[in-house]
Amino acid sequence: VSTQSTWEHLNGHFREAGLEGLGWDFLAGFLGAAVGEAATNPLSVWKNFAIKNQHIPTLACVPHLYRQEGAACLFRGILPATVRKSLSNGGLLSVAPHTVSLTYWVACSLVPPQG
C-alpha cells in the first residue's frame, strides 16, 4: 500500500465526517505537536539538568529533581515550546499538500515527458 493511497483513504474518512480544509489540517498539526511536546518535554528537562549538574549521576537526576521540585518540574518550559512547535507544525501541515502539488506541477512543466 502506497503512502499516497493511505493518505487519500484517510482524507476520505475526514471528508465523510465533514472535517476538511486548511483549518482542520492546522488543528491536526497543532494537536500532534502539543501531544509530542508533552511526551518529550520531561526528557529535555532531564537532559538539561544532567548537563548542568554533571556531579550528579545521569540516572539519579530524575529522582533528585522529583525530591527537590516535585513532578511539575519535569514540565518546566512546556508552554513556550508547545506554542512554538504547534504553530510551526500546524502551519506546515496546512500547506504541505499544496506545496507538494505545486512542486509536482512545476517539475512536470519543466521536464519533458520521456517517450
Tell me what the structure shows.
By secondary structure, this protein is an all-alpha fold. 76% of the residues lie in helices and 0% in strands. The chain has four helices and no strands. α2 crosses α4. The longest helix has 33 residues.
How many distinct helices? 4
Q: Could you state the order of secondary-structure elements as H and E?
A: HHHH
Shape assignment: elongated
- From the N-terminal CA to the C-terminal CA, the straight-line distance is 28 Å
List how many beta strands DSSP finds: 0
Secondary-structure blueprint of this entry?
Elements: H1 3-16, H2 22-52, H3 61-69, H4 78-110
Helix pairs in contact: 2-4
Summed up:
By secondary structure, this protein is mainly alpha-helical. It is built from four helices and no strands.
Give a quick set of tags describing it.
115 residues; mainly alpha; elongated
